[in-house]
Predict the 3D structure of the following.
Amino acid sequence: MTEHFKRCSDPFSRFSNALLLEIKNAIPITDLRTHVCFHKSHERIASVYGSYAVQDRFWERACWLSGLGLIRQETLLRVSWKDIAYDCIEKCGFCKHPQCGMALLEKNVAEMAGVDDTLTWAGLDEGRAVPEYAYNVLSGGNIETNSVMGDLDFDFSKCPSRSRLHCSDLVTCLRLDGVEHDYDRRLRMHPIALRSFATFPPVRKVVLLDLFNIRLPNPFRSSGITVFDVQNALHHELFKDLTDKAICSFMGWPEEPHWKVLQEASRKYRTLYKIFSAVRLLGLDVEECYAQNISLRMVTSSPQRRHEF
């Protein structure tokens, strides 16, 4: 009686491993959310995904095809791709924000479909790192930037001033314009957005052109630059005092005005963080894309308060 009850209460007991394998194979590898939900639905499911090494290879490829990469100090040699997949889906796989959840995963999958698979995916050694420049860049194809960059904002209101230089992904936020749901805006709570590749195809390095004469660090990641890397590069400059030249560039002044006017402008917009209180980051544009030279320009809205001076 007890054994019969166990079989009735566990529907998976009726399924053979062969049937479970067929179900797993019927799920497209690009459907990361369904794979995670299926994998964690029962303790028997993991076995149909193979050995630990085979599973890690599977999850790495699934994340790659979903446009998801590494962040912070993660490296290809020390990372669990299954944990990355689980974290993304458990935290925001059902997020309704247009720049997260399935909406973003589907956009990423569509963009990654155009990436040359044979050149950007080479096995379980160092060859996994994406090429210095991607194949379809060399062949004259286009390089696209991720739309997530156009929905980023910065909010340090809950971050202690002494910690501002060390918590970029804690205080980088997603905008909620036109979004009805009450989300936690912090980007770290949206790992799908945070881990999404900044460009399609993914590239190891880019040059970020000066923003209002402010020199920005150039991101580098051998496995492909992510949204995290770009926002982190921007964050490094947020609280540095701006030069007079940078203030004039932001204000649109061809030459320095009277010192009192410049002083007042410097008081209001003395850092890049202050500038982002007057303009919005609208995204990234490709300025140059030739062989190894991929230059990106940050696009902002027109300043709303420059007419005050």
The two ends are 85 Å apart (CA to CA). The first strand starts at residue 144 and ends at 145. The first helix runs from residue 2 to 9.
